[in-house]
Amino acid sequence: MSQKIVIRSADDVDIPVYVFEPKGNIKGAIVLLQEIFGVNQHIKEVAQNYSDTGYIVYTPDIFHRIKQGIELGYEEKDIQKGLEYKEKIGWDIPIMDIVSCAADLKSNHKVAVLGYCFGGSLSWRANQKSHIFDACISFYGSSVSEFIDIEAKSPTILHFGLLDKGIPKNSIDKIEDFSSRSKKEINVYTYQNADHGFNCNKRNSYNKEAAALAWERSISFLEKYI
């Protein structure tokens, strides 16, 4: 079950955050980041799944400065609307909000940042910009290859589907080259028959086998570092 709280960001703006708490002992914390579709039902289910394994999960409403409570579907009109929101919000302000959420958790827990789609790119960029995270997990972040200008600050895993036209093989090659030279552990995982959004069971691109393997790798990674 989740509750909704408010966290104060660094610029004194309130961030609406969905909180998912495990029933038993808390292993650690995750700041889980949405796709371009907002904190919709899928993202809430994903957050609940991680919470069920023992992590307290904060899921901030990344688009709250544009409009609170945005929840989109996966039709073409939703994709276009989500891309508009993404362009409007940019990168720097969401990262400030993400780090603020991590700071609220950090006094009591190790904290991972974990994101999907737009959130996958945000998780990678936040991990480059801040030392606050203990681990980073990114699913099909299409802008990761654009952000290889500075080192990751904590161990990272990156998941990509090889059928994803938005993240072509040359972009993945670029990321793998960067990871091989990094001082931090960066594991790049590719999934042969998986497209963008392969983890989302609400989309036509859902790939059950790839999603299960990515989940297993992510949970093992969290258990190692968080």
How many helices? The count is 6
**What's the SSE pattern?**
EEEHEHHEHEEHEH
The number of distinct β-strands equals 8
Mean pLDDT equals 96
Radius of gyration over alpha carbons? Answer: 16 Å
Structural class based on helices, strands and sheet pairing: alpha/beta
Distance between the ends: 22 Å
Q: Short summary of the structure?
A:
By secondary structure, the chain is of the alpha/beta class. Helix content is 37%, strand content 22%. It has helices at residues 41-52, 76-89, 92-106, 118-129, 169-181, 208-225; strands at residues 2-8, 14-20, 28-33, 55-60, 111-116, 135-139, 156-161, 186-191.
Protein architecture, described:
It is a single chain. By secondary structure, the chain is α/β, with parallel strands linked by helices. The chain is built from six helices and eight strands. It has an eight-stranded mixed beta sheet with strand order 1-2-4-3-5-6-7-8, sandwiched between helices. Strand 5, helix 4 and strand 6 form a beta-alpha-beta unit. The longest helix has 18 residues. The protein starts with a strand and ends with a helix. The mean pLDDT is 96.
